[in-house]
Predict the 3D structure of the following.
Amino acid sequence: MSRHHPDLVLCMKQSGTRVGRLCEKCDGKCPVCDSFVRPTTLVKVCDECSFGKLEDRCIICDGYAVADAYYCFECTRLEKDRDGCPKIINVGGSRTDLHFQRKKEGQR
């Protein structure tokens, strides 16, 4: 997700022991490069991103999580799985602009 949307901000704190989870829409994606190819290493998220209401939420789109997240083989080989927590902590400028545009037009 972060590869295609440069305005998204990742948490990048030191990873903890909890496994990152993905929703049905994002199931199978690598959280770093959006690849669906050769999932290899289990994603670990930091303690702040894994407790409370965030425990059962997708690390990419914040939907209801149903499956474990995995890094692809290429990101594991390049050691991007050691950069830190891959949870996206903002929704991005384009999604925020779309929300307020729809609200202004009275659609929502």
Observations:
- Residues 18 and 52 are 13 Å apart (CA to CA).
